[in-house]
Specification:
By secondary structure, the chain is α/β, with parallel strands linked by helices. It contains eleven helices and eleven strands.
C-alpha cells in the first residue's frame, strides 16, 4: 500500500516525463475516478493508504494516459455546461471552445439579443454536445441531430437518453442528404483540418475519428458544401452558426456572403480567436414568375 499523496506525486511525475500537459491535474482526475470521489476531496485524504486493487487500476490508467490516450476517454465522461456526456473514440471530445459557443448562444437568447428558435438542426453532431445542450436549455424546441457516422450517432443517442431528451430525433446523413424539413437555426462543427496537417496534430487529437477531422486539402471542402446546401433547409430569417478553424473565420464569413447569406459576423473564443461564424438567411421574395413556376410544377405532379 502507498500513501495517496505519494502516489499522486509519483504519478504526476511519470506523466510529465511522458509529455502530458497539466500532469498533476490529469493525475488528480485519474485518482479521483479510481476512488469514486470528487477531485477536490483528494486534498482531505492525502494521508490515506491506497489499497492494492485501487493502485492496480490507477497504474493501468496512468500508463494509458502516458501513451497519449485522452483523459476524457479514460474517465468515460466529460462535463459540458453542467451536463455529463459520455465521451469515447466514436466522436470528437467536446472542446472548451465549443462549450463557450453554446454558453454564449444560451445567454444571448435568455437576454433577448438572439431570437429563440422553434426548430434546430445540429449537423455533424458527434457526441451531440451542441444540439443536446441547446435542447436542454430550450425544452420546446424541435431538435434534429445528424451525422455521417453511425458510431457517432450511437454515442449521441446514448447522451440524449442520459439527459432524458427522448424527443430529440437523429438521422444518419452526409450533410443534408437524408435531412427533411426546414429550421430556424442550423449549427455545425464540421471537419476543418487540412488533410496534410492531421499527422501533425497532438497524439490526443489524433485519437479522434479522422472522419471528424479531415476537411479536405485546404480544410474548407465540407464547409463550402454546407454553405451551398444548407439554404434548402432554412426557414425565413433563419440563422446558421459554425465553429471553424483558428484561421478560417474571415474566409468562411466571406464565403457565406457569397452564398447569399447576410449579416455574416464573427465571434471570438476565450483566447480571442475568431472561430465562430454567424450568418442570417433571408428568403428570396415571392414573385409572379416563381408562383407560376410553382403552379406549373404542381400541375405536372398532379398528372
Amino acid at each position: 500500500m502507498k500513501l495517496l499523496l505519494e502516489t499522486l506525486t509519483a504519478g504526476a511525475g511519470y506523466l510529465e516525463k511522458h509529455g502530458v500537459e497539466e500532469a498533476r491535474l490529469n493525475m488528480e482526475h485519474l485518482l479521483a475516478h479510481v476512488l469514486g470521489c470528487r477531485r477536490l476531496d483528494l486534498y482531505l485524504r492525502f494521508g490515506e493508504l491506497l489499497q492494492e486493487s485501487d493502485l492496480a487500476k490507477l497504474r493501468d490508467l496512468t500508463r494509458r494516459r502516458a501513451d497519449g490516450e485522452p483523459l476524457q476517454h479514460l474517465l468515460g465522461t466529460v462535463d459540458f455546461l453542467g451536463n455529463e456526456l459520455i465521451s469515447d473514440h466514436r466522436a470528437l471530445i467536446p472542446r472548451p471552445e465549443t462549450e463557450h459557443l453554446v454558453d454564449w448562444m444560451i445567454r444571448e437568447v435568455k437576454a433577448g439579443r438572439l431570437r429563440k428558435p422553434n426548430s434546430l438542426l445540429d449537423v455533424a453532431t458527434g457526441s451531440g454536445c451542441i444540439g443536446l445542450t441547446l435542447a436542454t436549455a430550450w425544452k420546446d424546441c424541435r431538435v434534429l441531430l445528424s451525422d455521417i457516422s453511425e458510431e457517432a450517432l450511437d454515442l449521441a443517442r446514448m447522451n440524449a437518453s442520459r439527459l432524458g431528451l427522448h424527443q430529440v430525433k437523429l438521422v444518419r446523413s452526409d450533410l443534408f442528404e437524408k435531412v427533411t424539413g426546414s429550421f430556424d437555426l442550423v449549427t455545425a462543427n464540421l471537419p476543418y483540418i487540412p488533410s496534410a496537417e492531421i499527422s501533425t496534430l497532438s497524439r490526443e487529437v489524433r485519437r479522434d475519428p479522422v472522419l471528424a477531422l479531415d476537411g479536405g486539402p485546404d480544410g474548407m471542402e465540407i464547409i463550402r458544401r454546407f454553405l451551398i446546401e444548407v439554404k434548402k433547409h432554412l426557414l425565413p430569417d433563419a440563422l446558421i452558426v459554425l465553429e471553424v478553424g483558428h484561421d478560417q473565420g474571415r474566409e468562411v464569413a466571406d464565403k457565406a456572403l457569397e452564398c447569399g447569406f447576410v449579416n455574416a459576423r464573427l465571434l471570438a473564443d476565450l483566447a480571442g480567436i475568431e472561430r465562430f461564424v454567424f450568418a442570417e438567411y433571408v428568403a428570396p421574395p415571392v414573385t409572379e414568375d416563381s408562383v407560376s413556376e410553382g403552379l406549373s410544377t404542381e400541375a405536372v405532379a398532379d398528372v
